[in-house]
Amino acid sequence: MHRIDEAYDYCEKVIARHSKTFYKAFSLLPKEDRKAVWAVYAFCRTADDIVDEGKSPVLELNAFAFEFERFLKSEFDPANGMWLALSDVFSRYEMDVQAFRDMLEGQKMDLTINRYQTMDQLLNYSYHVAGTVGLMLLPILAPKKAKDLKKDAIALGLAMQVTNILRDVGEDLERDRIYLPQDIMDFYSVKEEDLMEGIVNKGFIELWEHLAEEAERLYQQAFSTMNEYPLHSRIPVYGAGKLYREILSTVRSKQYQVFGEKHYVSDDKKKAILASI
């Protein structure tokens, strides 16, 4: 096996381990595009893990950002599977370099900001950590339509991030992070202490649904231009979006119990959604 094949295998193992939803959806892509998505995911996951699990996350994230700038000058360790695979991707596709930089800026936000006052602030953060991923993937998924689809690719990333936030309220609290905007919490009379106690009452459900409605609006925006994607990537992208949107329905079916447990879409449901596209 060639070293580049081993590098892509490494990236595939990363996504298969950490995101079964994305892995299932994007496995439907043609081989070369599929491998490119694996490499981009491995980059994002590396940054994410530094923030959530790093011993000195500020120093480590700054070092990773510096490494990326060196990578752009073709200065990287070829023994590192992620950089080796990514260098192959950058040589084959017209990648959006700024999207990668913006994503790293978003990861830095998680090290300095743990509360959000307004929906606009939350969406700005969500653009940096998730909307950017749409921009990273567009040159792979729809190279001839990348500029036309930019706005809606960002919308899909935003929708997915808001969905993550709604699923992970309890998990984020354990890291002393509250992404639910303070002004919307105030409107529904939900206090931080209520979240800490895991209280699911009328106010919390209305707050949750307020954000879910925003996510649904963003999904609809993203889905409105799915027919612009090439046929071979349309089903994977649409599938990834629909699988993620189903998380909202799953949480509802569990009576909004987002404290202490993480909800996933069942494999049978995933198969049914992908088969219906």
Automatic annotation (TrEMBL):
<dbReference type="InterPro" id="IPR019845">
    <property type="entry name" value="Squalene/phytoene_synthase_CS"/>
</dbReference>
<dbReference type="Pfam" id="PF00494">
    <property type="entry name" value="SQS_PSY"/>
</dbReference>
<dbReference type="GO" id="GO:0016117">
    <property type="term" value="P:carotenoid biosynthetic process"/>
</dbReference>
<dbReference type="GO" id="GO:0004311">
    <property type="term" value="F:geranylgeranyl diphosphate synthase activity"/>
</dbReference>
<dbReference type="InterPro" id="IPR008949">
    <property type="entry name" value="Isoprenoid_synthase_dom_sf"/>
</dbReference>
<dbReference type="GO" id="GO:0051996">
    <property type="term" value="F:squalene synthase [NAD(P)H] activity"/>
</dbReference>
<dbReference type="InterPro" id="IPR044843">
    <property type="entry name" value="Trans_IPPS_bact-type"/>
</dbReference>
<comment type="pathway">
    <text>Carotenoid biosynthesis.</text>
</comment>
<dbReference type="InterPro" id="IPR002060">
    <property type="entry name" value="Squ/phyt_synthse"/>
</dbReference>
<dbReference type="InterPro" id="IPR033904">
    <property type="entry name" value="Trans_IPPS_HH"/>
</dbReference>
<keyword id="KW-0808">Transferase</keyword>
<protein>
    <submittedName>
        <fullName>Phytoene synthase</fullName>
    </submittedName>
</protein>
<keyword id="KW-0125">Carotenoid biosynthesis</keyword>
